[in-house]
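A.,

Following up on our hallway conversation. Structure tokens first:
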């Protein structure tokens, strides 16, 4: 039986997150043998968006495709990459925010003679940039970008705050999409499952970032902000253990049925 394997990571947070992935990706690849490796990069450059240097670092480490979220629009250095001829082949941003913002919300790749489409969406609940409905955005994508008879594999990064919106969405696309993984909260959920019509769903993959932290950021600076004692920018720990949260999915190349799913949760020394 021929397989097609996917290795997926949630939000990589800052230098320590990049280091954790760079130092461990070759081992993870040796174990899981992915045909495609995807990571969310909205927090890649010190928590805010991307830069060419930071993106190149994790591309060189072996990540193939980069999804993102609202923070990617906050880093002016990274904005041109979203429209750059080369980077835009592998770098996407939520499809359902600001039509005037740079970049595209999906890409189509050819892997092992299979069309693999990767779509990035941003939830509406408690999220900036006034996204349109992820449900209707998917329907539009399905109508305009997917040929139902050609059996492409569809992978969706749903960058959203609430479990309810992500969970409802996964049920809505069950049987149409192959993998729906959530990002943004930085906290992995324990609900990995194959849904009744065959879609793999994980409400949030979780981050790649500092373990002794508040969602990847220095804990005291975060607590101070909650206590309204500071409005200083978040700091990111540079040392200490890091956690790598990910998702592995293996599909049958002919039927696209799920052969194996596994949630990855590792704590590594940095
Ligand atoms: Fe994030
Ligand atoms: Fe986010």
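Then the amino acids I'd put at each of the 270 positions:
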């Amino acid at each position: 039986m021929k397989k097609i394997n996917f290795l997926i990571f949630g939000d990589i947070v800052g230098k320590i997150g990049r280091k954790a992935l760079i130092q461990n990706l070759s081992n993870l690849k040796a174990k899981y043998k992915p045909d495609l490796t995807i990571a969310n990069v909205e927090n890649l450059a010190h928590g805010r968006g991307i830069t060419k240097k930071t993106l190149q670092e994790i591309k060189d480490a072996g990540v193939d495709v980069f999804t993102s979220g609202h923070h990617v629009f906050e880093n002016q250095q990274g904005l041109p990459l979203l429209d750059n001829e080369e980077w835009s082949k592998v770098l996407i941003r939520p499809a359902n925010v600001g039509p005037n913002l740079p970049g595209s919300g999906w890409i189509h790749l050819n892997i092992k003679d299979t069309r693999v489409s990767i779509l990035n969406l941003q939830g509406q609940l408690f999220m900036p940039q006034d996204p349109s409905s992820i449900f209707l955005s998917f329907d539009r994508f399905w109508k305009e970008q997917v040929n139902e008879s050609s059996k492409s594999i569809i992978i969706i990064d749903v960058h959203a705050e609430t479990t309810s919106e992500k969970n409802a969405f996964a049920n809505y696309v069950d049987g149409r999409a192959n993998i729906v993984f959530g990002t943004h909260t930085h906290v992995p959920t324990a609900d990995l499952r194959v849904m009744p019509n065959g879609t793999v769903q994980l409400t949030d993959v979780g981050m790649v970032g500092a373990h002794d932290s508040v969602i990847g950021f220095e804990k005291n600076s975060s607590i101070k902000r909650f206590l309204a004692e500071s409005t200083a920018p978040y700091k990111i720990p540079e040392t200490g253990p890091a956690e790598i949260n990910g998702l592995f999915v293996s599909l049958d190349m002919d039927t696209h049925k799920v052969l194996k799913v596994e949630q990855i949760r590792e704590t590594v020394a940095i």
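DSSP finds six helices and twelve strands in the chain. Curious whether your intuition agrees with the design.

B.
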